[in-house]
Amino acid sequence: MTIIEVEDCSCGFHSKITISMDEPENVKVNISSGCDAANFWGRGLQRINWRECFGPEPLKSELWLSAMEKLNHRSCPLPIAVLRGIECVIGINVPANINIRFIQNYNKHE
Q1: Which residues pair with 24 in a beta bridge?
Q2: Which of 24, 29, 67, 103 has a beta carbon 3.0–4.6 Å from 45's, enabling a disulfide?
Q3: Do residues 27 and 89 make contact, with C-beta atoms less than 8 angstroms apart?
Q4: Using CA atoms, how far apart are residues 95 and 16, in angstroms rounded to an integer?
Q5: Distance between CA atoms of 19 and 1, rounded to whole angstroms?
Q6: What is the DSSP code string of 33-76?
Q7: Cα(21)–Cα(89) distance, rounded to whole angstroms?
Q8: Smallest Cα–Cα separation from 15: which of 107, 102, 85, 92?
Q9: What is the arithmetic mean of pLDDT over 82-102?
Q10: Pair 36, 56: CB distance under 8 Å
Q11: Structure letter (DSSP) for residue 10
């Protein structure tokens, strides 16, 4: 089982993702978040065929299609966090933190 905490400082929401093996080709995904859209998306995921996520057409997987339909922002970090968690659960990656830092921001509209 893998447990991931995600904090998106732009929206202020914290999320907890739990991923575990269900069957050889499926994982169980549970998302608990302060974001209603993330919770709605998570309820629809529950069981994912991980081969679909890493196969020849990953952008057509249920994971990506439902994320683009149900999450409010295309740049939401939750889909990537779920993918990384799946990789760890199936043994093709290691559990390691991912950091994105804004060093400087030029806003042309200021």
Answers
A1: none
A2: 29
A3: yes
A4: 15
A5: 6
A6: ES-HHHHHHHHHHSEEEHHHHHSS-GGGSHHHHHHHHHSS-TT-
A7: 7
A8: 85
A9: 94
A10: no
A11: T
Rounded mean pLDDT, 37-65? 94
Amino acid at 1: M
**Residue ranges per structural domain of the chain:** 2-90
First to last CA, the chain: 46
Question: How many C-beta atoms lie closer than 10 Å to residue 31's C-beta?
Answer: 24
Q: What is the pLDDT of residues 11-21, one digit of tens each?
A: 999 999 999 99
Q: Give the contacts of 5 (CB within 8 A, at least 6 positions apart).
A: 14, 15, 16, 17
| CA–CA dist 85, 3 (Å, integer) | 8
